[in-house]
Amino acid sequence: MNETNRAGLSQSLERGLAVLCLFTPDRPALGISELARELTLTRSTTHRYVATLASLGFLDHDASTRKYRLGPRVLDLGFSVLGSLELRETAAPFLRRLTDATGYTSNLAIRDDTDVILIDRVRGRPGRYHHLEFSLHVGSRIPAYCSATGKVLLAFLPRPDLEQMLERLDLVQRGPRTLTDQAALLAELDQVRRTGIAVNDEELDSALRSIAAPVRSRSGEVVAAVNVAIPWSPAAMSDLVSQLGPAVQAAAHDIAARVI
Fold it and tell me: Cα separation of 154 and 144, whole Å?
């Protein structure tokens, strides 16, 4: 049956996309009953949409739990979007230059609510990887509160927006130095605003440090963050910032100069 809504648009397509939008990081797996309830559809109608999406690879079915998750075709779409982002294309040569200059992996990240998403990365020289880096890829999500890029993207939010977001954050211990106290995190974000640079000192994972700087649009809004990821070394964090911070800030500035 050809279903159309009053505007002449496809109701079936609209409902299919609505199914996909219900899957979030907080709810990665959903059953037919949950989906039907959220969509205010019958179970049989919901199952028809879900079965179609699963047959096309947009959903995966877990037979043991009888629930569905987003499938690989959704990732393909996401990566296609990421690949077309003007910001990513603009930043690519400067990330490469940053990695070439420092030897470390560089990343470009944007914020999505309480997470940051890596939209580009350039691997560092062999022997300079942290084990976590092997599991990260373009499209990976990282908690904002315990990453250098995330701190940059949180720090320059309007204060009311930042405070509301912090109320929704569960400051879980991820690494040996994770800031799990809201007041301590706010104090560090204040410092990021003053200095224009953020650090992760074994907060996301053991033996991993990073240094990040903001990328601003011409209006002054912080639209992204650039960082270098540094496997642990005996050097003091302050020495690493002195050594690598200017290169990170220069890369962020060069990218910003070409962002509308």
Answer: 7
| Residue bearing the bigger pLDDT, 136 or 100 | 100
Please state, in angstroms and rounded to a whole number, the distance separating the CA atoms of residues 248 and 245.
5
Residue-level length of the chain: 260
- What H or E segment, with its residue span, contains residue 66? none
| Sign of torsion over alpha carbons 113, 225, 75, 175 | negative
- Identify the band that residue 77 occupies on the pLDDT scale cut at 50, 70 and 90: low
Assign domain 11-71 to a CATH class. Answer: mainly alpha
SS (H, E, C) 68-134: EEECHHHHHHHHHHHHHCHHHHHHHHHHHHHHHHHCCEEEEEEEECCEEEEEEEECCCCCCCCHHHH
For residue range 125-143, list pLDDT tens digits in order. 887 778 887 778 888 889 9
Q: Any idea of the CA torsion for 175, 176, 178, 184, to the nearest 10 degrees?
A: 180
Residue 135: DSSP 8-state? G
What residue segments make up the domains of the chain, in order of their start?
A: 11-71, 85-256
CATH 3.30.450.40 for domain 85-256: yes
> In this structure, are residues 61 and 68 in contact, taking their beta carbons and an 8 Å threshold?
yes
| Those residues with Cβ within 8 angstroms of residue 88's Cβ, 6 or more apart along the chain or in another chain | 82, 108, 119, 120
What predicted TM-score, i.e. pTM, was given to this entire model? 0.69
